[in-house]
Each structure stands twice: as structure tokens, then as C-alpha cells.
Amino acid sequence: MSYVGGRSPQVGAGGFTLGGGTSPFANKYGWALDNVYEYEVVLANGTVVTASETLNPDLYFALRGGGSNFGIVTAFTVRVFQQGRVMSSRATYVPDQTERALDNAFELFTKPGLADDENMGFDMYYAYNQAEGEFILTGSEWYEKPVASPPVCDAIRQVPTTRRSTTLATMANLTSVSQQLHRSSLVRNAFCVAFSPFANPKS
């Protein structure tokens, strides 16, 4: 059995859930906050209460991504699901292919037939390559079934890359690898960016 948790073993389920909890499988299961039936909470006056859709619904709503500002959560009742091996593929794109990669990534979430595949998840990152002194664009493909090359990823995989690794494994095994890559002693070099697609005036 599995729960919509983090992708790194350093991330605890409690804090992850209280923060909202984005997931590579959000298409299928939603965020962590969507999978909590109720919270057991110790309030500032020491009272222990249950927060759910029917009991203390205002507190329940506040705790859905609101962090730990409303009390100390001592227990969660959550939805779990069966999950075996999944596909995880990480790619570093050729620098002059950034626009093409972004266009294909946008289609994953908007194009009919692609966006309808609830097993698909996709993340993109800008990372700083310290050795070369440049920023690089990387992408992480996820598929909630053990399929190495799901058709939904065909277009994005046509974008030239400098490196790609694909693994079929359980989430537990994948997070163990993440722990080795992101040890706390290392300086993080990945950054979040937001972009908004727009119509190409040339088309």
C-alpha cells in the first residue's frame, strides 16, 4: 500500500501533507491534501479535536495546505492505494532545444489524448551546472505503471538530450536513489521557474 508522499526520504509525511503535498501522480490521486479524510489536532488551549468535512470543517479547510499554524496535528486519516513499480525517467536537454522542450511539456498537460492519461506526471527544472558555469533544463517523466516508454511521452522524448536515465522501480527504491543524489551536505543547484505559454505569432 502507498500514500501520496514526497519523492525524497528526507521529506516527512506530516510536513509534506500539511504543506499541500504536490505529487508526480497528481493526475490520478491529486495532492496529499486531497487524500486526507480527517486530522487529529491539539489546539492552543490544549483541546484535542478532530477536523474533517463534517467535524470542525473550517479547521479542516485551513489545514488543507495551511501548514502547522492552526495547531499540532498528531494523526492523519488518509486514503491509501496499491502501487507497484513505476516508471521514472530523467533527461537533460541540449541547451538550444529549450523552447522545443517547453512546447512539448505544455502539450503533455493540454493536448487531448495526452492530458487525459492520468498515469502521467512530468516535472521540469532549471539547474546550474557548476562545472560548465551554465544553466541547463532537465525534465522528469513519471508513469504510474511499469512501462518504460509510454506513448504519452513519445513527443517529449524526441527532443535531443545530453543525458537520459530511465528506471522501473518502486517509489521506495527511487527515493533511496534521491537520497544519494541530494545529500544534506551538498549545496542545492536546482531552481523553480514559472512560465506561461503563448501563441507563436509565426504560426
TrEMBL record:
The keyword Membrane does not apply. Keywords: FAD, Flavoprotein, Oxidoreductase. One of its GO terms (molecular function) is FAD binding. Residues 1-83 form the FAD-binding PCMH-type domain. InterPro entries: FAD-bd_PCMH, FAD-bd_PCMH-like_sf, FAD-bd_PCMH_sub2, FAD-linked_Oxidoreductase, Oxid_FAD_bind_N. Belongs to the oxygen-dependent FAD-linked oxidoreductase family. This is Fad binding domain protein. It comes from Colletotrichum incanum.
